[in-house]
Design goal:
Distance between the termini: 30 Å
Strand content: over 45%
Pfam families: Omp85 (PF01103)
Subcellular location: Membrane
Helix content: under 10%
Protein name: Surface antigen, putative
Radius of gyration: 22 Å
Main location: membrane
Structural class: mainly beta
Organism: Angomonas deanei
Number of strands: 18
Length: about 350
């Protein structure tokens, strides 16, 4: 249930309520303003929600939050800055499998933060309506996204860190029907005063970054054989993907789906020194890679004809490097790769 644009005009009130799942109510209330001197748009938010986790040591995170956000939007550019306080708690159904050093993250913690996001987009689409109907994704241009967060904890859970992520995408047309898309993402967390990085805030790589892999980087599998695979996150990561996009071969005028060939790779690590960060050989020697093909649904019929996300059905093959340094078409740890499962990937970001 939701309410929106209650007051109308320059000011408005927005709220929503989601019935309990697992006995947790999600509710939010926002006061919206577009007064120029506080930003082109502003939001004052208070609410509670539950975020589900996939292939994570926790099953979900319960968050109670108060924040203020100022946003600015111009053609091709969007930015917003948020200041807020969170009271949060990780929950799991498998507490017995949680390592002792991570148990403190499963108690209630407080967090204060300042977050800034910037998005730049200068892309072009097919000008011909027939070609656009065959392939409605960008064929030319550039997209840039960056996010920075400065956060600190309370007296009982001391932590202070700076977290930054940067994503770059480039599109090139290749004839009237094909286009090439290259995207890369890097991220890092710098803890101040040698403080510990909470599990809630660590960096994670998954099938949305390197298709086919449950998770990349530190996990419960690092300690040897384990009954339950779960990611524990890192503090530095990179991922890159190269795709050849083209209309759906079997029904090119369907207006809903396209196809792609892809090759992607990435790595996520928990590093403790600058020397480890500079170790380029290890970054590439232990990275996860996959190649494959898939179908991309770019428009969801239930939401109209406007592109509303990216929905992929892929088949891919993992590529690893064996102990002798040779490429091998398999993965050393079968727990890391969804090699026999049927899976669908949903992303609200068209450039994922």
């Amino acid at each position: 249930m939701s309410l929106e644009n209650v007051l109308g005009g320059r000011y408005s009130v927005k709220g929503n309520y989601i019935p309990p799942a697992a006995r947790v109510h999600s509710i939010a209330l926002s006061f919206l303003s577009n007064v120029p001197f506080i930003g082109q748009g502003a939001e004052y938010y208070v609410g509670r929600r539950t975020e589900n986790k996939t292939y994570h040591l926790a099953n979900a995170e319960k968050i109670e939050e108060v924040k203020a956000t100022a946003s600015n939007q111009k053609p091709g550019m969007y930015s917003h800055c948020s200041v807020g306080i969170q009271r949060r708690k990780l929950v799991t159904k498998h507490r017995e499998s949680v390592p002792e050093d991570l148990l403190p993250d499963f108690s209630t913690k407080n967090k204060g933060y300042i977050k800034y996001e910037f998005n730049f987009q200068n892309v072009a689409y097919h000008a011909n309506p027939a070609l656009f109907n065959m392939y409605p994704l960008p064929i030319y241009g550039t997209q840039v996204f960056s996010e920075s967060e400065l956060a600190c904890g309370g007296e009982s859970d001391r932590f202070t860190f700076l977290k930054s992520e940067f994503q770059f995408s480039k599109f090139w047309p290749l004839g009237p029907f094909f286009s090439v898309h290259w995207g890369s993402r890097v991220g890092g967390i710098y803890p101040f005063f040698q403080s510990r990085i909470p599990l809630n805030d660590r960096l994670f790589l998954s099938t949305c970054h390197v298709r086919g892999f449950k998770s990349i980087g530190p996990s419960t599998a690092d300690a040897g054989e384990t009954e339950r695979f779960a990611a524990t996150g890192g503090n530095a990561m990179w991922a890159s993907s190269l795709c050849l996009n083209f209309p759906f071969l079997f029904a090119p005028n369907n207006g809903l789906a396209a196809m792609h060939l892809f090759a992607n790779a990435g790595n996520n690590r928990m590093i403790s020194s600058y020397d480890e960060l500079k170790d380029v050989y290890t970054w590439f020697r232990n990275c996860a890679c996959s190649i494959g093909a898939g179908i991309t649904i770019t428009r969801i019929p239930l939401f109209g004809v406007v592109p509303s996300g990216r929905f992929e059905l892929n088949a891919c093959l993992p590529i690893g490097i064996d102990k002798r340094g040779d490429l091998t078409f398999r993965n050393g740890n079968p727990k890391l790769f969804d090699n026999v499962r049927f899976g669908l990937v949903w992303s609200s970001n068209l450039t994922s």
